[in-house]
């Protein structure tokens, strides 16, 4: 039995999936199995994955009709045989020592049930600054309850027994990671390594404004039910939560939507800037600032703080070269669908 099962949900991830898979195969930690769930891809991802699975017995391919990210992740985790589960997206790139660092950390800290790490933003033509996610349990939970991004789902490694004990991901096909983080934090400690573990790809095709608004709403629902469980109250249904949520009250409803849309503008700005389209990126960033000055300035401040911290830290890992490694290219770009990954806030 392997020590780690890496679970990847894949839907139309060309032209990035080959580079993602390569980064897993070349991990310095070798005791793993890779479970890839092809969630009804139509762009050639399935053909590539079928060929890849024939080259390495550690790679298990599950194929299903398109059911969405949550269903694909659940299918992959259900098939996992290892006690530790690593999540990964089909368009990101792991650092070679990602698994080695995280496995060693969980061995040293048995009280920790889930550990993530920092990310590097990766665009079409350049790589950017590192994230500045909190490191300790209390700070992570406090940030999640404020709807601030505190853990990046593609970086996590967690104990499968604890995941099973909380009932896995919730039934809603959005913000399943946010709810899971909070519930894992109720049965164990959460942590982030202060080390870049993954290059997180920004590209405009993966950003959907309506989906971001929906994700923000479900993030707040996950936070609300977390508080209810702590107070030993009955958990609200999503419909009950909506009845009392601020987005139903004017002018809060207008402000909530504008704030959410600013997240989409910020993410698109980052994608444009890392694609070296500076004018479009600057315009989008200005739009984000006008829509939500506080949130946008906080994101930019976090990025600047991390840059200063890494510059002052002896031996800090340097960013990857600004030009991503060549990969096999296929005609279709990344296609956003119910199965494609969406970080449930944009503070990355």
UniProtKB/TrEMBL annotation:
<keyword id="KW-0808">Transferase</keyword>
<dbReference type="InterPro" id="IPR001173">
    <property type="entry name" value="Glyco_trans_2-like"/>
</dbReference>
<keyword id="KW-0328">Glycosyltransferase</keyword>
<protein>
    <submittedName>
        <fullName>Putative glycosyltransferase EpsE</fullName>
        <ecNumber>2.4.-.-</ecNumber>
    </submittedName>
</protein>
<feature type="compositionally biased region" description="Polar residues">
    <location>
        <begin position="337"/>
        <end position="348"/>
    </location>
</feature>
<feature type="domain" description="Glycosyltransferase 2-like">
    <location>
        <begin position="5"/>
        <end position="166"/>
    </location>
</feature>
<dbReference type="InterPro" id="IPR029044">
    <property type="entry name" value="Nucleotide-diphossugar_trans"/>
</dbReference>
<dbReference type="Pfam" id="PF00535">
    <property type="entry name" value="Glycos_transf_2"/>
</dbReference>
<dbReference type="GO" id="GO:0016758">
    <property type="term" value="F:hexosyltransferase activity"/>
</dbReference>
<feature type="region of interest" description="Disordered">
    <location>
        <begin position="309"/>
        <end position="348"/>
    </location>
</feature>
């Amino acid at each position: 039995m392997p020590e780690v099962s890496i679970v990847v949900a894949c839907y139309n991830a060309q032209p990035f999936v080959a580079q993602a898979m390569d980064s897993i195969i070349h991990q310095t930690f070798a005791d793993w199995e890779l479970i890839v769930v092809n969630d009804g891809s139509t762009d050639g991802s399935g053909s590539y994955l079928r060929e890849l699975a024939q080259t390495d017995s550690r790679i298990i391919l599950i194929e299903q009709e398109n059911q969405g990210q949550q269903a694909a992740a659940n299918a992959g985790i259900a098939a996992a045989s290892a006690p530790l589960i690593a999540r990964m997206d089909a368009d990101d790139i792991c650092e070679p020592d990602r698994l080695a660092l995280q496995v060693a950390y969980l061995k040293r800290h048995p009280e920790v049930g889930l550990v993530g790490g920092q990310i590097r933003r990766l665009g079409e033509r350049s790589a950017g600054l590192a994230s500045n996610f909190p490191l300790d349990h209390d700070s992570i939970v406090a940030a999640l309850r404020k709807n601030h991004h505190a853990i990046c789902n593609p970086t996590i490694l967690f104990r499968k027994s604890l995941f099973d004990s909380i009932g896995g991901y919730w039934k809603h096909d959005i913000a399943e990671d946010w709810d899971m983080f909070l519930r894992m934090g109720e049965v164990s400690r959460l942590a982030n390594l202060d080390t870049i573990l993954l290059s997180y790809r920004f590209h405009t095709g993966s950003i959907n404004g309506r989906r971001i608004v929906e994700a923000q709403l479900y993030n707040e629902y996950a936070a609300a039910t977390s508080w209810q469980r702590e107070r030993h109250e009955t958990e609200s249904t999503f419909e009950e939560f909506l009845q009392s949520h601020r987005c139903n009250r004017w002018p809060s409803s207008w402000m909530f939507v504008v704030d959410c849309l600013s997240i989409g503008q910020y993410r698109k700005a980052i994608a444009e800037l890392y694609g070296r389209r500076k004018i479009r990126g600057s315009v989008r960033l200005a739009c984000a600032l006008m829509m939500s000055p506080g949130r946008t300035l906080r994101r930019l401040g976090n990025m600047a703080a991390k840059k200063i911290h890494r510059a002052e830290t002896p031996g800090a890992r340097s960013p990857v070269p600004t030009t991503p490694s060549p990969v096999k290219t296929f005609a279709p770009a990344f296609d956003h669908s119910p199965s494609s990954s969406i970080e449930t806030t944009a503070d990355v």
